[in-house]
From TrEMBL:
InterPro entries: Molybdate_resp_trans_reg, WH-like_DNA-bd_sf, WH_DNA-bd_sf. It comes from the Bacteria. It comes from Flavobacterium jejuense. This is LysR family transcriptional regulator. PANTHER family: DNA-BINDING TRANSCRIPTIONAL DUAL REGULATOR MODE (PTHR30432:SF1), TRANSCRIPTIONAL REGULATOR MODE (PTHR30432). Coiled coil: none annotated.
Length: 111
């Protein structure tokens, strides 16, 4: 069985808004409540994680994360509702794209 493989990303004039890696980071922030914990879980440096979030934030019109100032346990990072919506939007577009590519492949007899 043949499959088309492709990576999807969404970019603007300001740069990349969303990609698989950026969405994984957003999901991990949502899961862990911390940019630091998310970066460790994904095995990327905190600086790289912060840069990726900063690049997405500069491309969007709404905040994607909020930082919490904590007490004894420290602070944390949470996704805004808009940040969560970006995950859903990206995943829907990605799924639709894969379905389209599979349909296109079925139209052509390659083997």
């Amino acid at each position: 069985m043949l499959k088309i493989k492709s990576k999807i990303w969404i970019e603007s004039n300001n740069g990349i808004l969303l990609s698989e890696g950026r969405v994984q980071l957003l999901k991990m922030i949502d899961e862990t409540g911390s940019l630091n914990k998310a970066s460790k879980a994904l095995k990327i440096s905190y600086q790289k994680a912060w840069r990726l979030i900063d690049e997405v934030s500069k491309t969007t019109k709404q905040p994607i994360i909020e930082t919490k100032i904590g007490g004894a346990k420290g602070g944390g990072t949470i996704l805004t509702p808009y940040g969560k919506s970006l995950i859903s939007i990206y995943e829907t577009i990605n799924k639709d794209c894969w379905q389209f590519l599979d349909e296109q492949l079925k139209k052509h007899a390659l083997c």
